[in-house]
Structures are given as C-alpha cells and as structure tokens.
Known about the structure:
Blueprint: E1 25-32, E2 42-53, E3 64-70, H1 76-85, E4 90-95, H2 101-121, E5 124-128, E6 139-144, E7 152-157
Parallel strand pairs: 1-3
Antiparallel strand pairs: 1-2, 2-4, 3-5, 4-7, 5-6, 6-7
Amino acid sequence: MFRLPTHLETFVPPPTEQVPQTRPWRGTLVLSNPSSPPASSHTVIYCAAAETEGDNQVQTWPPQFVIQILNHRPMLPQFQAWVKANAVPMCMFMPDRLADRDAHKRNIASFELLAKTLHDNQFVAVAPWNSSDRTSGGGLILYPTVTSTALLVGAIFLQNGFPDFLGVNPRSHVLPVPRAQSYSPSGSSATPNIATSQRHGRGGGGYAG
C-alpha cells in the first residue's frame, strides 16, 4: 500500500473532510432569436460546464437551457460589479466535444459567435430553469470572460431571482424547447480544464481570441 511521506501528510485532508469532485454538466444551450423566421429561430450549442465557486448543484440542472440575450441595453459592466459585491455560485461554460468533426467545428463556431456578440455589445444572456419543480431561483446569467471567446461565465441563481436592474421576470422568459438535431459527444467525461481561467471568472473587458 502506497503511503505519503510524513512531511506531505499535512497537505492531504482526512477522508471525512475530502470533497468529492463534481461531475461537469453536459447539455445544450438553445439560443432564441425571435426576430428570425421560425425555421432558423434557434441555434443549438452543445456545452460542458464545471463549477468554479460555490455549490452549483449541477445534478439538478435540466439537460437543456433556452437562453435569450438581453439586448435592450449594455448591462455587462453593471452586472459584473453586482457579481463582485454579491456571493453567488459560479461556473464556466465551454463547447463540448462532438464525435462528428464537421458538427464539432460548427458547434465551436456557434459558441464563439455567442461569446463575441456578448462581449462586443456588452450584453448578458439569461437562461431560466424552465422547470419550477427543480429549483425556486431564476436560473443562469451568462457573460463573456476576459480571456477568450471559447469560455463563458455563468452566475447561478438557485434560490434567488435575478437582480432587479436586469428587468427580467424568469417565468415570462420560459420558451418552448425545440427539438435539437442529435449529435453524439466524444464520450470523454473528464472534467474540463478550467484552472487557468478561474481567476478571470468575475471579470470582463478584452479577450484574446
């Protein structure tokens, strides 16, 4: 049986204090575009999300979120200031790996276009829970990172509603979930590597594409 050297044992918490790793959420973000014709009014993006701060309770999340960009005015700076002043669980979204190469490229392009749109216009996007029996909170607020269009930050509202200044009633934003074209993820269930981006999760501003 392997045993750590005595001088390293103090760095490893006892079994009763060790926290098991949370499996990342894997599902889809459905981007609603009400101004487009019905045939092209939705973009489906396959994503993975891993928690960075707080208890995200990803095991209670639905497999699909319908998201809507709040494009009536730029609210990213105000929301970032609110996040810094309020302790809310946080996570990081990234494109999931798809087995089909062409579908994988299109999925990445759709994700990066969403992130770039949010960044360039200083917008945020809302993703209500779409199911009142899962949790009583508002849902997710998505916004861009300071580093890359390949990541989106998620602020999670498990029990509380969205901040009033956003002007959002989550129940009025619950949209019917469309039938998505089916693609198979690559099969990797490893937790996404977000260690280098966690420190940027609450920031904003420019990014390196």
